[in-house]
Design brief:
There is one protein chain. The protein has 14 helices and 19 strands. By secondary structure, the chain is an alpha/beta fold. It has 3 domains: 332 residues, TIM Barrel, CATH 3.20.20.80; 53 residues, Oligo-1,6-glucosidase, domain 2 (Alpha-Beta Complex), CATH 3.90.400.10; 66 residues, Immunoglobulin-like (Sandwich), CATH 2.60.40. α3 links the parallel β2 and β3. The chain binds 1-deoxynojirimycin (NOJ).
């Protein structure tokens, strides 16, 4: 008998497929070149047709856009570039009519430096909002108070000339970190959460969930390896052991509080828990107690190379640490798209679909990043077109994240139907064949395959079943069983095979060449399959 999973973090999201909408690049409804809320509403039919259950929309709040919306200047509004509150309400209402849930992006680690709290906080050392942020005197020898660095390059401290104190920002100077040790900040956010819950949203994706609480003594972080001039901001950040700025125990207290707050609304708390080395034992703490986050993104699968050893390490360790509650994604607006990572051209796309076949049947909550379903690779961006501050504010070699953020090609039209104006970043070399319109009517298209994969998942996967590996670490095929389904992925450089458990099994979905003979399944390179038990 298959054991059923424990139910602590379960809810309407069990068995759901999520879809990330990077709003600026989804659909522009008014020709200003930037995607917006009415644009999302226009495409709900498409998402519902695809089989999506849940959408996550990246920040649409008023913002100076230094980090394209992740710098919020009003947590309870809509930036005019994305529409108005009435557009938001309409979107939620329409989404619910399609049976689609909507979660919004909560950005609690930092506000914009233009937020009235920060403007006030900055106005004087005695200001009532001073304690909403982290202000510190310079180090005794002068310079920043400690050695903490920003994710986006340079020191995490900026000097305010007026007061001669520094403020902390783990991202841009325009994104000052809020002080989560201050009960007033906690209360403000209680109200912000309720505000949106009362507007009928279905939950939150929590930005930088690993970062909220800091060690208030602010000691230097130890270094793990020497820092050199030629390192990218990401490498410099990774050179530190973030012992005092990230992953502090207090984060869980905040999430426990929010868990109680969202309970009457039956809303989902999904954390972006981005930790060094993606240590699954640390990520799992955010979900395993069953009273904090319901789900946490696990990011290693977005970086893992296509080889058996790395894949086994990544997935075995993660599922040992958190067997039920992780969220999986192929790509995102922060990292190169999977078909680019996995080798460009047809091979990269086939591998991405095969990989999705594996990811989508895992316990937890899988997400598609807009355009994954079209098989889109990242685009090449010319230096002069770069928009991401990670690229524009650092040395020439720093790529930034624009390549994964180019607009979605919808149909044969001006700018492939994304906008009637000029897109805020280039469309890249997308063609008519890439568009959703074309792929929707073309047999064998990536889009049709993703739709079929999602349909098969809905038909065969029992979300209440736990995972049992059916192949072992020395195999080039990663295969697991859940109830009466097996999902298997070949990451070997050659054909590889698995032996099936007792019973008669049938392939219901496949990518690449997969053949069954008696109890043996042979997988060609870059292939994957879903098998189902037809006779016990
Ligand atoms: C994670 C978001 O996904 C990213 O786009 C953003 O720049 C940082 N958090 C800072 O908010």
């Amino acid at each position: 008998m298959e054991s059923t999973i424990s139910k602590d973090n379960s809810g309407w999201w069990d068995g759901s497929i999520g879809y990330e909408i990077y709003i600026r690049s989804f659909v522009d409804s008014n020709g200003d070149g930037v995607g917006d809320l009415p644009g999302v509403t226009e495409k709900l039919e498409y998402l519902s047709w695809l089989g999506i259950d849940l959408v996550w929309i990246t920040p649409f709040y008023p913002s100076p856009m230094a980090d394209f919306g992740y710098d919020v200047s009003d947590y309870c509004g809509v930036d005019p570039i994305f529409g108005g509150l009435e557009d938001f309400d309409r979107l939620i209402e329409e989404a619910h009519r399609y049976d689609l849930r909507v979660i919004i992006d909560l950005v609690p680690n930092h506000s914009s430096s233009e937020h009235p709290w920060f403007l006030s906080s900055r106005s004087s050392v005695d200001d009532g909002y001073r304690g909403y942020y982290h202000w510190r005197d310079p180090a005794p020898s002068g310079g920043p108070p400690n050695n903490w660095v920003s994710h986006f390059g340079g020191s995490a401290w900026t000097l305010d000339e007026e007061s001669e104190q520094y403020y902390l920002h783990l991202f841009l100077p325009e994104q000052p970190d809020l002080n989560w040790n201050n009960p007033k900040v906690i209360q403000e956010f209680d109200e912000i959460l309720k505000y949106w819950l009362d507007r009928d949203i279905d939950g939150f994706r929590i930005d930088v969930a690993q970062g909220l609480v800091k060690n208030m003594l602010m000691p230097d972080n130890p270094t793990r390896f020497p820092i050199t001039e030629d390192m990218s901001p990401r490498q410099v950040f990774a050179a530190f052991d973030h012992r005092y700025d990230l992953d502090q125990g207090g984060n869980l207290e905040i999430f426990r509080r929010w868990r109680k707050l969202v309970k009457p609304y039956d809303a989902l708390l999904l954390g972006e828990v981005y930790l060094r080395d993606n240590d699954p034992n640390r990520v799992s703490r955010y979900v395993n107690s069953g009273d904090a986050l319901h789900r946490a993104f696990y990011f290693a699968p977005m970086h893992v190379p296509w080889d058996p050893q790395s894949m086994w390490d990544t997935f075995r360790d993660a599922l040992d640490a958190a067997p039920e509650d992780l969220s999986w994604a192929l790509s995102s607006h922060d990292d190169p798209r999977a078909p680019t990572r996995f080798g460009e051209g047809r091979e990269g796309k086939q591998r991405s679909l095969a990989y999705s076949t594996f990811l989508f049947f895992l316990p937890g909550l899988p997400f598609i990043y807009q355009g994954d379903e079209l098989g889109l690779p990242s685009i090449e961006i010319q230096r002069e077109d770069l928009a991401d501050p990670v690229a524009t504010r650092n040395a020439d070699e720093t790529d930034g994240r624009d390549g994964a953020r180019s607009p979605i090609p919808w149909e044969k039209a001006h700018e492939l139907g994304f906008t009637t104006g000029t897109p805020w970043i280039p469309m890249g070399d997308r063609t008519h064949e890439d568009t959703a319109e074309h792929q929707r009517i073309t047999e064998g298209s990536w889009l049709k395959s993703y739709k079929e994969l999602i349909r098969i998942r809905g038909e065969y996967l029992d979300p209440n079943t736990s995972l049992r590996w059916t192949s072992s670490r020395d195999s080039g095929v990663l295969a697991y069983r859940r109830g009466d389904t097996i999902s298997a992925l070949n990451v070997d450089t050659d054909d590889s095979f698995i032996l099936l458990p007792e019973g008669e099994w049938e392939i219901v979905f496949q990518v690449g060449v997969v053949t069954v003979e008696f109890n043996e399944v042979t997988f060609g390179v870059n292939s994957a399959a879903i098998l189902t038990l037809i006779i016990e």
